[in-house]
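DM from R.C. (forwarded with permission)

"hey, sorry to bug you on a friday — could you get me a structure for this? deadline for the figure draft is monday and I only need the backbone to look sensible"
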Amino acid sequence: MMDFLLQDCLANSKLYAWGVLPGLIFIARVSDVTIGTIRLIFISRGMKYMAPLAGFFEVLIWILVIGQIMQNLTNPACYVAYAAGFATGNYVGIYLAEKLSLGMVIVRIITQKDASSLLESMKARHFGVTVLDGHGAKGKVQVIFTVIKKAHVQEVQEMIRRFNPQAFYSIEEVGDVAKGVFPARSTWRDFAVLRMFRPFRKSK
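My reply, with the result:
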């Protein structure tokens, strides 16, 4: 009976050391790296209350993980789980950052084709546009500038592909934006997460 209990304890100990513990380390590392990525976005967007809160949980999780690593220095599975969690956390953090769609971008559109239909469509959605006449490598062009929320980028890209599929365009992040013309209503992509963070945004 004693031998059976001893073997059972050893089996459970090995299962914890080589399965449960590395799994917990992996999950914790994914969590703290993901939070770290989101924290950097909060900092860049001036969310002075959300950034410290995210930093608190990021460091707390990291300390707990390091503590387990230091207690199991002879267990290579912990090292592998730590590294795999870090790599996965970067991917998850970038993915969530894209889904959050925080911030503003400037879209530059250069087209040789008449852009009146595109401009009318953008104005109908209350996107502010600035149009300039220019000269490109192949002749006269129109240059269109618009500053929009990241959440609206896909919508503007669809407009470009629909009305001016051959147009060249580039998208670049911008910092603070003062005044301008923007859609009065938020789309479903703005609703869930961004509304929670809006009270913490840095005042313009």
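R.C.: lifesaver. The first helix runs from residue 2 to 44.
me: no worries. The CA atoms of residues 121 and 160 lie 10 Å apart.
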